[in-house]
Amino acid sequence: MKTKELDVIVVAEINVDIIVAGMQRLPMPGTEHLVESIELTAGSSGVLTATALAALGLRVGLCGLVGDDLFGHYMVEHLQRWHIDTAGVLCDPTMRTGAGVILSTLEDRAILTYSGTIAQLRLEDVRMDQVARARHLHLSSYFLQTALQPDVPTLLQRSKALGLTTSLDPGYDPAEQWKMEGVLEWLDLFLPNLDEARALTGMSTITDALKRLASQTPGVAIKAGQLGATAIKDAEYRQDPGFSVQVIDTTGAGDAFNAGFIAAMLAGENLGDCLRRGNACGALTAAHRGGSGGFTRSDVERLLSST
Questions:
Q1: Are residues 282 and 293 in contact, defined by beta-carbon separation less than 8 angstroms?
Q2: Alpha helices in the chain, H assignment, sequence order
Q3: What is the pTM of this model?
Q4: Which CATH number is associated with domain 6-305?
Q5: How far apart are CA 107 and CA 179, in angstroms?
Q6: Which of 97, 226, 231, 270 has the fewest Cβ atoms nearer than 10 Å?
Q7: pLDDT one digit per residue (tens) for the chain, 307 residues
Q8: What is the Cα–Cα distance from 231 to 276, expressed in whole angstroms?
């Protein structure tokens, strides 16, 4: 069998993030608040996962869509700076690149999203020749990628036919319909957070949500922030409490968890170690401002060996 050139190909929404940090609470209409910082950074769940995978030393490519504008150029430059293969990134001069404004507090965050190119990527825009170069396909923000959404089962089927394993982080559903028909059965790994898992299943506890999702797909890892993460794969159940860090900004922590878990899975590590590595990546990202650049592979190894 021919050796794959890439470890992971990420099919992603692409957008910048404008992060408003240091808020004590989310603002009420008609009020004004001073904050610690407002920064322009690389955004999108898929790009942040791809960046974290690259930081862990994996060979990563990305498929997505940008506009021929300042935000689009910024995002492509970010990917190239992290040595992420951009052959699958298309530029459409008739569109505007997506953007998110993240209002971040110590406890949580709220996100205002302008969809732009996020909602325009279609199945025919995903270069399957690039997908075929990889061992694993990761899809991000299912509910935001509305043009691609109806064809996600087809994308996953084609990827598996090419020999790839598959994973998906659904993200939040702004429409709050929470329908994923025909998707979970084509996944090797499903990566919701606890709120998403509850909404998708109607179950209130992490255990019940995990069991419901595991009846539809062989691998599920549910992220629960400071409560750690819980996973089940091929009927094996594991829970990991995570790491205690001083939280600065939770942006991208779940995406970094995805990267750590996927990297460990591709390396053949057991389920408990996959959870542990995912939690380490998530913790280091939460202790850093911005969704990317929060750790190196050495940082992760030091944190793992310290406990």
A1: no
A2: 45-55, 70-81, 128-131, 152-161, 194-201, 206-214, 253-266, 271-286, 297-305
A3: 0.93
A4: 3.40.1190.20
A5: 28
A6: 270
A7: 568 999 999 999 999 999 888 787 788 889 888 888 899 999 999 999 999 999 999 999 999 999 999 999 999 999 999 999 999 999 999 999 999 998 877 667 788 889 999 999 999 999 999 999 999 999 999 999 999 999 999 999 999 999 999 999 999 999 999 999 999 999 999 999 999 999 999 999 999 999 999 999 999 999 998 889 999 998 899 999 999 888 877 788 999 999 999 999 999 999 999 999 999 999 999 988 777 888 899 999 999 998 7
A8: 11
Torsion of the alpha carbons at 172, 127, 87 and 12, rounded to the nearest 10: 0
Q: Are the CB atoms for 259 and 281 separated by under 8 Å?
A: yes
Buried b (16+ CB within 10 A) or exposed e, 238-259: bbbebbebebbbbbbbbbbbbb
Tokens of residue 153, six digits: 């089962």
Closest to 277 in 3D by CA, of 235, 234, 237, 238: 238
All structural domains of the chain with their residue ranges: 6-305
Token representation of residue 69: 């504008």
Sheet holding 37-42, edge to edge: 37-42, 15-23, 98-105, 109-114
In order of 27, 137, 197, 223, 236, the CA distances from 272 in angstroms are: 40, 22, 20, 14, 10
Three-state SS string over 192-246 comes to CEHHHHHHHHCCCCHHHHHHHHHCCCCEEEEECHHHCEEEEECCEEEEECCCCCC
Q: Residue 222 pairs with which residues in a beta bridge?
A: 230
| Residue position matching structure tokens 């001069």 | 93
Q: Rounded CA gap, 256 and 204, in Å?
A: 25
Q: At what angle do helices 70-81 and 45-55 cross, to 10 degrees?
A: 20
